Amino acid sequence: MTNLIDIENLGKRYGDFVLTGVNLAVEPGTVVGFIGSNGAGKTTTLKAALGLITADEGTVRLFGQVAAPGSAAVEELKSRIGVVLDTCAFPSTCRVGDIASIGRVAYATWDDARWNELTALFQLAPKKKVADLSRGMGMKLSLAFALAHHPELLVLDEATAGLDPIARDEVLDILRDFMATGERGILMSTHITSDLEKIADEIVCVDNGRIMFAAPKDVLTDEAGVARCRAADVAAVLEAGFFAPGTARVLRHDYGCDLLVPDRFAFGRAFPDIPVDKATIEDYMTLTLKGESR
Ligand SMILES: Nc1ncnc2c1ncn2[C@@H]1O[C@H](COP(=O)(O)OP(=O)(O)OP(=O)(O)O)[C@@H](O)[C@H]1O
After folding, report:
1. Is the domain of 233 the same as that of 158?
2. Best mutation site among 42, 52, 156 for ligand 1 pocket (most ligand atoms within 8 Å of CB)
3. Ligand 1 centre and the CA of 45: distance in Å?
4. Is 42 close to ligand 1, i.e. is its CB under 6 Å away?
5. Which segments does the entry list as coiled coil (predicted)?
6. Which of the listed residues 43, 52, 206, 208 should we mutate to test ligand 1's pocket, taking the one with most ligand atoms within 8 A of CB?
7. Which residue's alpha carbon is at the smallest distance from atom 27 of ligand 1?
8. Are 106 and 144 in contact (CB under 8 A)?
9. 14 lines ligand 1 (CB under 6 A)
10. Ligand 1 binding pocket includes 5 (Cβ within 6 Å)
11. How far apart are CA 259 and CA 229, in angstroms?
12. What is the average pLDDT score of the chain?
């Protein structure tokens, strides 16, 4: 099956910041979570992938096709994508009820019934001005707009930021519903990694403009673990050759050391006296990015 989006060797320079060699793909039926610290390059990647900024290098294939920027072909491909960026894109004087008219002009596939359904679900009153919406309500408005034209791919940049936990769960339910056909996909950047634990299939982590790891979510959260070690335990594990030199990641705390282990079951068998917990996406990212390499 053709990927919904293929980003190959993407590069972009902003002064000292260099995004380079970014590869990322969304297969039909998958949700890809895109994570990384502030300023790591997530928004730059997403904007370059959508042609909102010009990349310095790389190729972006939408639905299997590469089309020239600004061409009718690329506009047609982009109309099959629903986009939510981290700011509400509608004019502040617009009222919620007026926004459907923008959708009707912009998208041949615009669906008024779906728009009405989503704005009602999100409790967005038609008379409310965009300027008077809270940040969370603005995100819901953008999400309703992105979904009401029945996209095949959703690209979300921090779309659940600013939403309270109940609203985030509502949004996650809508995203699950969107994925139910098995042919669509989502590429979403977020700092709320617990949302990705609920919905993502793949996790891609960028740091300082480079991809640091890309793996199925289950590998990170089911197989990987964090061993709670004393300093002597770390030395023993390294001495036993459990890790190839330089591949262990250790974070020291006042009360001991956390050691990232790729297979917590194998670790538990090899070192039954060292407690090992399941890793979260946040553990995996923090230890990979901030852990001392041993
Ligand atoms: N228009 C721009 N002009 C100059 N530098 C920019 C521009 N946009 C982004 N940058 C720089 O590019 C780097 C990456 O920014 P980007 O917004 O992609 O990070 P991010 O991973 O999305 O961060 P955050 O999680 O904070 O949203 C940062 O150093 C930022 O200052």
Report:
1. no
2. 42
3. 10
4. yes
5. none
6. 43
7. 38
8. no
9. yes
10. no
11. 7
12. 94
Whether residue 95 is found in the same domain as residue 164: yes
Cβ(43) – ligand 1 distance below 6 Å: yes
What count of other Cβ atoms lies within 10 Å of the Cβ of residue 284?
26
Per-residue model confidence (pLDDT) at position 67: 78
Same domain, 62 and 34: yes
Q: With contact defined as beta carbons under 8 Å apart, do 285 and 205 qualify?
A: yes
Whether ipTM > 0.90 holds is yes
Give dist(CA 138, CA 115) in Å, integer: 15
207 and 232: one domain? no
Same domain? For 239 and 108 the reply is: no
Q: What is the CATH number of the domain that holds 164?
A: 3.40.50.300
pLDDT digits (tens, 9 = 90+) for 56-106: 999 999 999 987 777 888 888 999 999 999 777 888 999 999 999 999 999
- Is the separation of the CB atoms in 225 and 279 below 8 Å? yes
**pTM for the predicted model, two decimal places:** 0.95
Q: What is the pLDDT of residue 71?
A: 82
Residue nearest to atom 31 of ligand 1 (CA): 39
Give the 3-state DSSP-derived string for 152-207, with helices as H, strands as E and coil as C: CEEEEECCCCCCCHHHHHHHHHHHHHHHHHCCCEEEEECCCHHHHHHHCCEEEEEE
Closest C-alpha to ligand 1, atom 8: 44
Tell me the best of 10, 12, 14, 189 to mutate to test the pocket of ligand 1, counting ligand atoms within 8 Å of each CB and taking the most: 14
Q: What is the mean pLDDT of residues 181-205?
A: 97
Q: Which residues contact 109 (CB under 8 A, 6 or more apart)?
A: 79, 149, 150
Range of the domain at 267: 224-293
Is the distance from CB of 202 to CB of 217 less than 8 angstroms? yes
**Residues 270, 173 share a domain:** no
